Every structure is written in structure tokens, then in C-alpha cells.
Amino acid sequence: MSKVERRIIAVGQYGQVACAVDASLAAPAAVFLDELKTGYWDDPEVGELPDERQVKEYYRFLALCKKIANGEDLEDFLSYNRLQDGVWELKVGIMRLAFYDTNGQGSWTPKPGDRHEEFDGKVKWLIPMDFDYFLRLANSFPKTEAKAPPEEILRAMQIRKEDVNHDRDEQVRG
User: Fold this and answer.
1) In sequence order, what are the beta bridge partners of 81?
2) Considering the domain boundaries, does residue 136 fall inside one?
């Protein structure tokens, strides 16, 4: 089996952001970004495609990825959130892009981030400063309810498992 190729979205002083590759060698985040860039992402709130707004939101996602790669603050809690077991999400409008960190050698350690209480009593999580170098974009989904769909979180965790297995296989092949 040949080396798995991942689309690199951003590289900076603190990390590399790339699209995760699942067991079928598909990259769901790359598909999402391609659809968004052309305005053809299947947005439940938009009746007719292409949607010009999506093209702008594509560049917002790219900017968030570049900021994370460079270790820059994402400025507000509206652009990201902690989901579960080391899976986080980038947020633009109703669009969500799940991501996680990995050492690039076939493993990961979930990073919960630091708890931050807002003035209104809501709890937010600060992005960890100890993320591993490799950040991988897993899957996308629309968030139309108060909480992220559990099946999408599970999907991100499954993609993570499959993606880091590619890294592990490459380590074995050396």
C-alpha cells in the first residue's frame, strides 16, 4: 500500500492542518471544503445553489485553520468549541468542521482544553496550547439544534481512528 496523501490546508509555526483520510481513502473534510468553495454545500437553510455566501465562509474556515497552525488566538468562542474525547469543531454560521490533533505516528491523546466560565454562567473551553503538531479536519455537518448531532461526533471519532491507522501503517512500513 502506498503512502496516504492528505490535503494540507495550512502550515504554521505551531502546526499543520490537513484533511483526515478515512479507511476508504476518502477525505470528507476536503469534499466539504470543495463544495463550500464553489457554493454547492448542501445547506439546509439555503433553497438555491450556488450560494455566494458559502464562498466567503470557505475563506473564513481557511483563516481559522491558518490561525490555529500559527498558534494565534481564535479571538472568540463563537469560532470553535470542544465536542468530545479530543474532538473539537470550527464554527462558521451553522457549518461545523470537526478536527482533532495527532502525533502523526499513529496515536493521539485527547486534549480537553481549559475550562472558562463566562459572565453569564456558560462554560467554554479554551483551545489547548499543547495540541500535537498535526491537526486533522475530519467531517462537516450543519448544526441546526442546540447541540452537535451525536452521530456526527461519533463519525469524527471513527474518521480519527481510521486516519491515525494510516499513520500507524506507515510507521510499520518505515
Assistant:
1) 89
2) yes
- Residue 2 belongs to some domain of the structure: no
Kindly state whether residue 33 falls inside one of the protein's structural domains: yes
The domain containing residue 34 runs over which residues? 8-173
C-beta of residue 29 within 8 angstroms of C-beta of residue 36: no
Q: Could you give the residue ranges of the DSSP H alpha helices within the chain? A: 28-38, 52-69, 150-173
Spell out the per-residue pLDDT of the chain, length 174, in tens: 578 999 999 999 999 999 999 999 999 999 999 999 999 999 999 989 999 999 999 999 999 999 999 998 887 768 999 999 999 999 999 999 999 999 999 999 999 888 888 778 777 888 888 999 999 999 999 999 989 999 999 999 999 999 999 999 888 876
Residue of 165, 55, 45, 151 whose CA lies nearest to 98: 151
Contact 148, 96 (CB under 8 A): yes
Task: Tell how strand 114-117 and strand 95-102 pair up.
Answer: unpaired
Sign of CA dihedral 7, 23, 166, 148: positive
Long-range pairs of 74-77 with CB within 8 A, sequence gap ≥ 24? 74/127, 77/116, 77/118, 77/124
Q: Is residue 3 part of a domain?
A: no
Domain count for the chain, please give it. 1
